[in-house]
Structure formats: C-alpha cells, structure tokens
Amino acid sequence: MKRKSFFFAINIFLLISCSTITPVKYTYWKPKKMDDGLVTGSLSEVNLDEVILGRAVDRIRKGKYGEIHSMLIYKDGMLVFEEYFPGHKYKWDGPGFHGSWVNWDIHHRHNVHSVGKSITAACIGIAVDLGFIKSVKQSIFDYLPKYQQLNTAGKEQITIEHLLTMSSGLKWEEWDTTYSNQNNDLIALWVHCEDPVKCILEVPLVSEPGKSFTYSGGNMIVLGEILKNASGMDIETFSWQYLFEPLGIEKPPWEWINETGVIYAGGSQKLTPREMLKFGVMYLNQGVWNGKQIVSENWVEKSVHPYSGPGNTWFNHFLRPIPPGCYAWGHRGYSYSWWTHDFSHADRDFPAFWCGGWGGQKIIVLPEQNTVVVFTGANYTIADPTINILLKNVFPAFE
User: Which domains does the chain have, with CATH numbers?
Assistant: First the structure.
C-alpha cells in the first residue's frame, strides 16, 4: 500500500511539473553551408536583430500565422536566417487543400503555385535576350500559327507584353470563385478543354489590350505556347537549359494539362526554399548569378516598376484580393509578372517587388536593403499572413 502511494505521489509530481514547463524559446543557428552556391552567414554579421526574428519563429510554431513552412532571409550576399516548420503538403481535393503531413526541411521541394508565373516571365526575357523572340511589343499571333483563325475582333492588338502584365483584355474569371470550383476559368482547362490554348484565346475581349488588369493564369499558358513556337523547345526544356541549370537548380518538373500537350506555365513547379531564394537573388543582382548574366538587367528593371499602360496609372489602384482575400499588401502594382509596392516602417522605406503563390509562397526582393525574403506555407483558406510577419518582425529587425 505504501508502495502504491509512493508511485501515486511521483505521478502527481510529474504532472504538476510538466504543467508548469514553459515552451522552449527559439535559439538561433547560422544556416548550414551546402554545395549550392549560397554563402551563409550570421544575423550579427548583417546587423539584423535576432530577438525580433525569434519572436516570429515562436509565433509560427504556436500556429499564430496558420501554416508557415519556411522562412529564409538573405542579406548582403549571405543567407543569414533559415527556419522550417511542419505542415501539410498541397492537395487540390484535400480538406482545406491539405494533403499529407510533412516535417518540412532544407531538402523538401514545395509547390510554389503562382511564383511560377515569374519563372515563366524570366524565360520569356531570356528568349528575347537570345533572339528567339524579337520584341515583347509583337502581336502574340506572330508566334501562334495554329490559332490564326482567332486573330480577329481586336485580338490582333494583344502583345506579348500584355500577357506579361495581365492586361490582355481577354475575358477571364479566376479570382471570382475558389480554385475548388470546376467553373473557375483556370480549373476548367483541366475539366472542359481539349485544347487549352484555344479555350483561352477564343473568349471575347472585354477591354482594350493594355488598358485593364485581369489576373489570368491563361495569359501565362499562352506565353508558354509562344515560347515553344519561338524556340522550338517546350518551357520545361527551355527553363532547364537557360534558367535552372545556370542557377544550379535540380530540374523541377512542370505540370502538364492532362494529355493536351500544353504545359501549365502559370506555376505549380516544385522547388526547395533555397532554390526559390536563388531565383530571387538573381533578380536582386540585376539578373546575375555567380558572375553570369542569366536574365538581362533591362528585363529585371521591367520587373521592379509597375506597368502603367499607355497614358495611365491604373495599375497602382487597390487591386482585388486573391480568394479568400487579403488586403494587407496594400495598393499593389504589377510589372512583368512581379508584384510591386513601396512599404514603410518607422520612417524607413522598403520598396519591394515580389512573386507570390497561393497559400503564402513568396520571394520578396528588397533592393534598398540588399535583401531577399522567402516564405512557403499552406494557408489556402485564410488571408495570407506573411505580410504581418514582414511588418511585425522582418522590417523591425533592420533597426
């Protein structure tokens, strides 16, 4: 009886002790040096506040920002911050678009969703640099011989630049419903179309090309077809030869639209956060990676400043939110498939351009701070929280 009482007392003690244990606080570690072309350093070397960034990690671990899977910061030529968090893989027909649970780490590739639009744009820029495409001012039908019957009713005015800046004027409803709805114009390409390019181009013009912004994955798919016809290579092959291999990135597969022979050039590649970072660093460095010019400086410049269209500034208006909605990114501009905005914090300016993907995938370039920030996540059904991390933890860490 005494023995039972002893063990009972021990159990009570352990329960009380465990209930008073405080969560383990964040401990910063310098990112691991790997053979991937990235130099690593410490936060102290670039004067970033470890305590403030640690608060972000603590909040992410507690689920205060939904599902954040990674957060990386590159500054002054070094990767100085790199953290990974567990969460769900993306699954289109899963609950909340969530699939299996993963302990995300440095090696896992993540679906980048619409970050891939900026990858497609980079490939178009390279094709212009190499002479495969003469000019972005050309009609799209100069490179679409199979679809000349649709080159009517004002569509002959659509240029490659209009596709890059989401200003083609073609009717498209992607933000008006969720991506789980088969009537969403993007999802319908997999469900209702035998020829996706034809389905995109045969819709009517609802505005003059260059005069109105409509977010359209369809525009990017047509760009992929233009690149194929101009270079003789599909965009998966082209991107590997001229973009990913020079960046030292293992070849990522692109998504094909069923058996149509058309590649979804609007995104959904799978990259590690470090691979995403390298793409962003190339843009930070005016198109240069490890001393090699991969994308021209002129093309990068087109990605920094919002496209305003001829004689107007409508791209700086308050754009509609991506479902389910996030207005926190403010009055956004759109360039050659990069978003733009001038942030400010504590009387300090943070002009930025970034590529973003559904669920919280971000490559954010801050030229004045010589910095790139990368996020991945699975916040598919809540407002994107990465802006709050930027405003509350990343920008203050520069002080």
Answer: 24-88+274-399 (3.40.710.10), 109-271 (3.40.710.10)
